[in-house]
Specification:
CATH topology of one domain: Endonuclease III, domain 1
Pfam families: Adenine_glyco
CATH architecture of one domain: Orthogonal Bundle
Organism: Nocardioides exalbidus
GO biological process, one term: base-excision repair
GO molecular function: DNA-3-methyladenine glycosylase activity; metal ion binding
Mean pLDDT: 92
Protein name: DNA-3-methyladenine glycosylase I
Number of strands: 2
Strand content: under 5%
Shape: globular
Distance between the termini: 26 Å
Number of helices: 9
CATH superfamily of one domain: Hypothetical protein, domain 2
CATH class of one domain: Mainly Alpha
Length: 209
């Protein structure tokens, strides 16, 4: 089992820590977690480490990474369509306007992760995103913390769970009013949207971030 979270991918990935890329039935080498299920293969090959564009896309990834904390990333991927529906496509203005009744509505929705602290944090973060427009917006803010590229991890155990950049981003977001944005969660966000490239050396997606 994976001993750490890789871009939101938790211990359900079905691979050992400390191993290199694995070659699937299609002959393609992937990070071990990215070869462990059809859903993970699709996410690994088309999304993980790929830059997204726009405020809503960045708010979505930040929100979903926060909801994933302590859970399987596969759970989040399977519930993502419903998350997008109930959070208005992660339109910051719409979510920022949510009130107590919306919190209760979300807490009653079995299609998402029903955690009150995370639901309330998502609304808090939407409001902080709106306020952040005065400083250039969420996308530019996050990308201002992009670190210099590091060496390619060779084994799964070489992939960090935090970094100085994720710690700095976490502190800055908290100062800007965001919640549930710890350094581990922010490192997962940075991996997911391509600020850092944590695909293993030998993985066919290495270098695409």
């Amino acid at each position: 089992m994976v001993a750490r979270v890789v871009g939101g991918v938790g211990e359900d990935a079905g691979v050992e820590s400390g191993i290199g890329p694995v070659v699937g039935d299609d002959g393609i080498a992937r990070c071990p977690w990215g070869a462990s299920s059809d859903v993970y293969v699709a996410y690994h090959d088309t999304e993980w480490g790929v830059r997204v564009s726009g405020e809503a896309a960045h708010l979505e990834r930040l929100t979903l990474e926060a909801f994933q904390s302590g859970l399987s990333w596969l759970t989040i991927l399977n519930k993502r369509p419903r998350f997008r529906e109930v959070f208005a496509g992660f339109d910051a203005d719409a979510v920022a306007a949510f009130g107590p009744a919306d919190v209760e509505r979300l807490m009653a929705d079995t299609g998402i992760v029903r955690n009150r602290r995370k639901v309330e944090a998502a609304i808090t973060n939407a409001r902080a995103t709106v306020a952040l427009r005065e400083q250039g917006g969420l996308e530019a803010f996050i990308w201002s913390f992009r670190p210099e590229p590091g060496p390619a991890p060779v084994l799964t155990g070489d992939v960090p769970t935090t970094s100085p950049a994720s710690l700095a981003l976490s502190k800055a977001l908290k100062k800007a009013g965001f919640a549930h944005v710890g350094p581990t969660t922010m490192h997962a966000l940075m991996e997911a949207i391509g600020l850092v490239d944590d695909h293993l050396a030998g993985c066919h997606r290495r270098g695409t971030a």
